[in-house]
Amino acid sequence: MEVSERIAANKVMQKENIEEKQSRLKWAVMLISPIFLIILTLFLGRYSIPPSQVVQILGNKFLGLNFEPTWTSSAETVILQVRLPRAIMAALVGASLSMSGAAFQGMFQNPLVSPFILGVSAGASFGAAAGLVLELPALGVQALAFIFGIIAVGIAYFLARIYKSTPILMLVLSGMVVSTFFQALLSMVKFIADDEEKLPAITFWLMGSLGSIEVKDLAIAVTPISLSMIILYLLRWKLNVLSMGDREARSLGVNNELIKTIIILSTTLITSTVVAFSGIIGWVGQVIPHFCRMIVGPDHKVLIPATMLIGAAYLILIDNFCRLITANEIPIGILTSIVGAPVFAYLLRKTKGGWN
Amino acid sequence: MITKLKIENASFGYNEHGNVWENINIQVNQGECFFLLGPNGSGKTTLLNCINNSLPLNTGSIYINGKDVKTFSITELARTIGIVYQEHTAPFPYSSLEVVRMGRTPYLGMFESPSQRDTDLAYSIMEQLGIAHLANKSYTHISGGERQLVLIARTLCQEPEIILFDEPTSHLDFKNQALILETIKKLSENGMTIIMSSHFPNHVWKVGTHAALLGFNGMVVQGLVNDVMTEAHLTNTYGVDVKIYQANSGMNEKKFCEPNFI
């Protein structure tokens, strides 16, 4: 090897070493931030509890320590039954919505797609509104939201199915049709709802909130959401192949219809569960994958885990602002849109149209 | 001589109002570079899609290695036949190496990602094609000719026995046409079976061993290049008067043709 070549090769290797170190640091930060934010959340809130007590409560509960309780039982309830499940739910919702968004953007070959594109939010909104008007208990409202979310996507999927395949364009269009239809039904329900109690309840529900999350909600939501997240995580490399287009994917030996169906099933399970428990939280599934692409690149093998971690951290952070900015909580859907839209606009400008 | 592809009495139509072509019989043996020529709408791409089992024949059969193509699984087919489509862009700026690596998909399980060995193979194929310098460049930022070479590398990563090309030089300038044709010729000389649709009859003399002319109503002339590529056949196929010229440039005698109008 020529001397000059050797020097050049050394330089390349040094550069790769630096890049590798940077990338390790990046992942370490991404991994730690959601955990750090969950713990931080436990210390923050309107009900003031001294940090030492928070540490002792957690120590007793999770590390089997035996501090003498110097705190009231309501302090323990606030930490363990309110703040902790809420922070974990925020992490779960942020992670799963962002992952669904990334998966859909890959599958639809378009970085502007949201996880709600097949009409799940419109369907779930109608279901929840109907539940509220019918004065169902909370679990009934959640169940109706979940069921109608799934029904909406089911209709969109079968409308899009032609010649044993589901072309992307057909999916987008049928998603629009289904969304419009269920939004009209939602308006109908709002129109007939009494405007003293039920209409405000519907309006409030639509804005999204994690305020009423309890341990039992978390216990129900965790299974479908994590199961779907595992499936999306396992399929992450196939998303690269799928994003090259149906024809290309098929010629590479991918059963694209099967994989598309699995992805739609997983994301729908995630979005309808999330919407059922927390209402409409927009602009997370679009913005986070876009943001992550700037940090780790477009390869879904690393993009999917990145969206999971950053999405979780992002939503915990936003939910803390919702809880703490004003005396009354701000619905989280409002804040994610207020933050998300400008950030998205900035990312669009910065990446000049976004994806190339 | 090993027969790689055999098309028997094949007909195809997109709807019930008649067929694109009828009763086609084509045989392609190992190592042949088989050109499909014909006017727009004569069904060249359609025929490639039928060979690839993306479209079902109305009548007749297509055999790959003596086995009916309909009995292949998607994975098995991708390990046997690679296809390079006309033009392709990706929505995301993957590195070219990542795109080449996608050629390993038919050897991976549903939830599997490529291993280091797959990556090494992809890189060495890029080296063989002389495009290793593109490995870290993004697929969306390279030229059309480079992109076509990356797609050829990806197809080679599939380790196929047959490669189909759908008008691989259609939108390329002279230099890039030469680059792609030289690559195809090398593959063919190394024993790869190649079937390629084209709008450039002149390319047939450069790299083809066999050719078929698809006319309207499914009329087909096929055989060795010099038997097929005559003025009468070309004029008949394209519906315009075609003249063949011969020229001596240096040591080689070259043939080329031109439509005779204006």
Topology:
The complex is a heterodimer of chains A (356) and B (262).
Chain A: H1 3-43, H2 51-62, H3 73-107, H4 120-133, H5 138-160, H6 168-192, H7 198-206, H8 215-234, H9 236-242, H10 246-251, H11 256-278, H12 287-296, H13 300-324, H14 332-350
Helix pairs in contact in A: 1-3, 1-13, 3-8, 3-11, 3-12, 3-13, 4-5, 4-6, 4-7, 4-11, 5-6, 5-11, 8-11, 9-13, 12-13
Chain B: E1 3-12, E2 21-29, E3 33-37, H1 44-51, E4 59-64, E5 67-68, H2 74-80, E6 81-84, H3 96-101, H4 116-128, H5 144-157, E7 162-166, H6 174-189, E8 193-198, H7 201-207, E9 210-214, E10 220-224, H8 225-228, H9 231-238, E11 242-249, E12 252-259
Parallel strand pairs in B: 3-8, 3-9, 6-7, 7-8
Antiparallel strand pairs in B: 1-2, 1-4, 4-5, 9-10, 11-12
Would you kindly provide a written description of the structure presented here, covering whatever features stand out?
The complex is a heterodimer of chains A (356) and B (262). Chain A is mainly α and 356 residues long. Chain A has a single domain, classed as ABC transporter involved in vitamin B12 uptake, BtuC (Orthogonal Bundle). Chain A is 76% helix and 0% strand. Chain A is built from 14 helices and no strands. In chain A, α3 runs antiparallel to α11 and α5 packs antiparallel against α6. The radius of gyration of chain A is 22 Å and the shape is globular. Chain B is of the alpha/beta class and 262 residues long. Chain B has a single domain, classed as Rossmann fold (3-Layer(aba) Sandwich). Chain B contains nine helices and twelve strands. Chain B has a six-stranded mixed β-sheet with strand order 6-7-8-3-9-10, with helices on both faces. A four-stranded antiparallel β-sheet of chain B has the order 2-1-4-5, with helices on one face. A two-stranded antiparallel sheet of chain B has the order 11-12.
